[in-house]
Amino acid sequence: MVSLIEEIMENAYSDKRITRVLSTFKVPTVGGKAFKYKENAPPAFTIGFYYTQPFGMIYVSDRILDQFNEKEIQGIILHELAHIYNNHFGWGVIADYVSMFSAEYLSEILEVSPSSGEFIIKSIRALVTATSGCLYFEHN
């Protein structure tokens, strides 16, 4: 699952429908990209967190973009934004994971500074790898 999500993120592309919807919410620290739907992948997902402001990226499959109207797409994007605002896969998860190890020890394993953004991304990747994709939520 982790490699599938990474592949989706790597091949994701800008889509004016997502950009238009996100611009109405005025959340400049959250972006959105489209991706070609793949079997066994969620049709939409978010990687992000909320600390003093929301931060992240929302991914929406071409299947959703082609089958739903703009109001429905807006609802899906709002749902994904709610994941960011509620830290469903953000600081809370990272904090729980990092608390199992010291940040210093984990940063040595990940070969990055614990105060860098790369540390957060690599921590998320390590967590998802360690849980073998158990944090996958299907969106209907």
Task: State the domain count.
Answer: 1
Number of E strands: 3
- Tell me the distance between the termini: 18 Å
CATH architectural label: 2-Layer Sandwich
CATH class: Alpha Beta
Task: Indicate the overall shape.
Answer: globular
- The number of helices is 7
Mean of residue pLDDT? Answer: 78
Helix content: 40-55%
Structural category: alpha+beta
CATH fold name, please?
Answer: Zincin-like
- Widest sheet: strand order? 1-3-2
The biggest sheet, with number of strands, parallel, antiparallel or mixed sense and barrel status, is: 3 strands, mixed
Gyration radius, rounded: 15 Å
Taken as a percent bin, the fraction of beta residues is 15-25%
Topology pattern, helix = H, strand = E: HHEEEHHHHH
Low-pLDDT stretches are 132-140
